[in-house]
Design brief:
By secondary structure, the protein is an alpha/beta fold. The protein contains nine helices and seven strands. The chain has one domain: Rossmann fold (3-Layer(aba) Sandwich), CATH 3.40.50. It binds NADP nicotinamide-adenine-dinucleotide phosphate.
Amino acid sequence: MKKIALITGASSGIGKELAIIHAKAGGDLVIVARNTEKLIQLKGEIEEKYQVTVHVISKDLSIKESVDQLFKEITDKGISINYLINNAGFGEYGEFQNTSWDREEKMIALNITTLTQLCKLFIPHMIRHGGGRILNVASTAAFQPGPLMAVYYATKAFVLHFSEAIGEELKDTGITVTALCPGATQSNFFNDAQMNDSKLVKGKKLPSSEDVANYGYRAMKKGKSVAIHGIGNFLLANSVRFSPRFLVLKMVKFIQRKSI
Ligand SMILES: NC(=O)c1ccc[n+]([C@@H]2O[C@H](COP(=O)([O-])OP(=O)(O)OC[C@H]3O[C@@H](n4cnc5c(N)ncnc54)[C@H](OP(=O)(O)O)[C@@H]3O)[C@@H](O)[C@H]2O)c1
């Protein structure tokens, strides 16, 4: 039977690639983001190429009511979600004293609250239907504090810890939970966070969103708990545990600084 995936943030980057990969595998989709035009274009491309059904739902998922509305729209249509992919998210760059609270409040709402609520709503539904898979997009930012992106790093630490914890609780229910942890990746993320001048990205050859999405999709299908993309990222993420915290903070701040 065709598996149906709900993907948030499917209008660009990693989420868009995840949608294409799932369609290629023969699955139907519910794709969500704010940009209706991009979602409709993606629906057209996917349906024509892969003979699957794509439902478009435009929502600003940083708005509190939007999550309940999304769940209602899906259940009213009689759609049963097999794969929940919480991918929508964004960052904000700069010293916390100077960054925009408006953006940070929305970031916490999207990266943390919406992701958590979608899990809360869909888990009982998945249990009733005999199981399912959840892919929560965290980041290598999840493994340490992040000076110059303090709120973003903290949101991703939440995603990682929350995903691992509920994954453990859900053992034996037929539901697996995977936290995908990409390192810096080509997408609209750095434009949006206005950090193209950061040493983290400037002049660097970053992996494509397609590579990261392929890796994440495979990890989700295997039911892997934590999936860190790339051997370098894997080693860095794990080395943090054995390094003095003051040193880790200095290193992250250095890497995130503007390259001049
Ligand atoms: N790129 C990286 O280096 C990197 C590294 C680690 C983790 N990540 C994580 O990967 C995930 C995907 O990011 P990306 O790199 O693919 O960036 P991206 O190209 O900017 O994609 C972000 C997606 O989230 C959607 N989105 C943003 N705000 C939204 C809102 N309020 N409501 C609904 N959808 C919203 C965007 O669509 P609309 O604008 O149409 O709403 C877009 O589809 C994020 O969770 C990010 O934190 C990225």
